[in-house]
Design brief:
The protein is an alpha+beta fold. It folds into 2 domains: about 5-280 and about 440-465, 2-methylcitrate dehydratase PrpD (Orthogonal Bundle), CATH 1.10.4100.10; about 285-410, 2-methylcitrate dehydratase PrpD (60s Ribosomal Protein L30, Chain: A, 2-Layer Sandwich), CATH 3.30.1330. Helix content is about 50%, strand content about 5%. The chain has 20 helices and 6 strands. The strands form 2 sheets. A 4-stranded mixed β-sheet has the order 4-3-5-6. The protein has a two-stranded antiparallel sheet with strand order 1-2. The longest helix is centred in the first third of the chain and has 22 residues, at about 130-150.
Length: about 475
């Protein structure tokens, strides 16, 4: 191996992450972080199981099975099996398959969808990874993914990149590298191999099925990084720092739009896993405050959709770009990523979960008529507050009887209390029962929440299939 490829480049941040991958220990994980990690993992697993029979999921699975007859790894929620890289691709797609998976808002990034599929692929193909080892590796991925996203910031998304897909490769590579037990040197290369594969375009939000696949592709790329580095394949050793063609400089149009310090700030002491937000609406996370605002207003005064004359929502420029665009009924994807559709659905159904999104609903005349009464507009004062408050919303509902109801939701996502374990488990049960009998749902739940007791993580992987 050449001297340059052995890591003597100016790469303190890449190497700092690699050192954490190699040296972080299960015993160092605080109890509260470990318990939180198991809950957010359970949430992602439920999301993946639910999505197995969705149209875009089946297209992807069937297409891959035509060219891949391997049976090494499980495809969640089904009886199908496939090779490790394709399992990472599929299972990541499943977790992100219906807009109900976790999100780290300060990045932003969907963490479980990129980290877990790559790590499960490692667990199923290496000799006996214990539950403790799995948890250790998962935490590594769950800590690195948010840091990569924080480094690039929400402007990365505003620029048109799907940030979870681009920065997600590093969380996947970190978790897979930790699962494989790579040393610091090889972990540097795992990151460098993963980073050069990063991509994902936000124009997919307007209706393309491929938006669902972005997280899966990131997970697959991270897995490739770890597997190849384990064999001695080399990557870009200064993948974050390189001034020409490095990840940060290539994906940002100016050097003041990324912050390398975020990559290692508080690493091993500050746990961003504790800031991961779980969704209880089946739509893009930035829309959730607006939906919460409607709930809040209805608690103060009950009103029906028929009573609404006009709804005005003031949001940041990032929210306008990401979800405030004029709705076009071009499929479930565009509906789930559009604020007006989700708001109309909340007003009509009083809910915005999985049952509210189907091909026969996205062009429903009643919803389209309600959307015409909704105005999403840019509020410069919210934009001026900067990153932490980019999802602040002002909501005004004018009723036909002349009443005007107003509220502001301004709490930062990282300030919101984490839901109770009971609420997380209830969501998991609701989703997993779409594929499995209650007895198997219970077994999966118990295996995840007691993961440190498992001698072999393959036990959990088997439970995620229809023929355990």
């Amino acid at each position: 191996m050449s001297k340059k490829n052995s890591g003597t480049a100016d790469n303190p941040y890449t190497r700092g992450i690699a050192s954490y991958i190699a040296k972080q220990r299960y015993e160092d994980i605080p109890d509260k972080v470990r318990e939180r990690l198991k809950l957010v993992m359970l949430d992602s697993i439920g999301c993946g199981i639910y999505a197995a029979e969705l149209e875009w999921s089946r297209i992807l699975i069937d297409a891959l099975k035509e060219v891949d007859t391997s049976t090494g790894c499980a495809i969640w929620g089904s009886s199908d099996r496939i090779s490790a890289p394709h399992a990472a691709l599929v299972n990541g797609t499943l977790i992100q398959g219906f807009e109900i998976d976790d999100v780290f808002h300060r990045g932003p990034i969907h963490v479980g969808a990129v980290v877990l599929p790559a790590l499960f692929a490692v667990a199923e193909t290496r000799p006996k990874m214990s539950g403790r080892e799995f948890l250790r590796a998962a935490l590594v991925g769950y800590e690195i993914a948010p840091r990569a996203a924080l480094c690039m910031g929400p402007e990365h998304l505003g620029q048109g990149w799907h940030s979870g897909a681009t920065t997600g490769v590093f969380g996947a590579a970190a978790g897979a590298a930790a699962g494989l037990g790579l040393d610091e040197e090889k972990a540097v290369h795992a990151l460098g191999i993963a980073g050069t594969q990063a991509s994902g375009l936000m124009a997919a939000q307007y209706g393309a099925m491929v938006k669902r696949m972005h997280a899966g592709r990131a997970s697959q790329s991270g897995l490739y990084g770890a597997l190849l580095a384990a064999r001695g394949f080399t990557g870009i050793v200064d993948v974050f720092e390189s001034k020409y063609g490095g990840f940060c400089t290539a994906f940002s149009n100016s050097t003041d739009r990324f912050n390398l310090h975020e990559l290692t700030a508080g690493l091993g002491e500050t746990y961003h896993t504790m800031e991961i937000f779980l969704k209880f609406y089946s739509c893009v996370g930035g829309v959730h405050p607006t939906l919460d605002a409607i709930r809040e207003l209805r608690e103060k005064r009950a009103f029906s959709a028929e009573e609404v004359e006009k709804v005005t929502v003031g949001v940041s420029q990032i929210s306008v770009d990401h979800s405030g665009w004029k709705y076009r009924p071009e499929g479930v994807t565009s509906a789930q990523l559009n604020m007006s559709y989700c708001l109309a659905t909340m007003l009509i159904d009083g809910e915005c979960f999985v049952d509210q999104f189907s091909e026969n609903r996205v062009a429903d005349p009643g919803r389209l008529a309600m959307i015409e009464r909704i105005e999403i507009k840019h509020d410069p004062e919210i934009t001026a507050l900067g990153r932490p408050y980019r999802h602040k919303v002002h909501v005004e509902v004018r009723l036909k009887d002349g009443a005007v109801l107003k509220t502001t939701i301004q709490k930062r996502f990282d300030e919101m209390p984490f839901p109770s374990a009971e609420r997380v488990i209830k969501k998991f049960d609701t989703l997993a029962r779409h594929a499995f009998p209650q007895s198997q749902v219970d077994n999966i739940r118990d295996a995840v929440l007691g993961l440190e007791k498992l001698d072999d993580a393959k036990t959990l992987a088997r439970l995620l299939t229809k023929n355990p």
